[in-house]
Protein: XACb0070 ribbon-helix-helix domain-containing protein
Organism: Microcystis aeruginosa 11-30S32
Amino acid sequence: MPPYRTIPSNEEPKKGSLSQYVEEAVKQRLSFEETVDSVQERNLRYSEEEIEESINEAIRETRATSRS
C-alpha cells in the first residue's frame, strides 16, 4: 500500500475508509518497529568492526558481480 491515498475527484470516500487507512498504517509501523528491534537485538552479538566488515564485503561482492 502506498504511503498516501488518492481518491478520484468524481468519487466520494467510503464511510470508514480513513479509519481503515489509519489502521493499516499503524500495523505497518508496528511491523517495521518490530523488525528494527529484532535486527538491533541480533546485532548485539557482533562488534561494530564485524558489522562494518560484513557490509564492506557485501559491497565489494556486489560491485564485482555488477562489473562482470
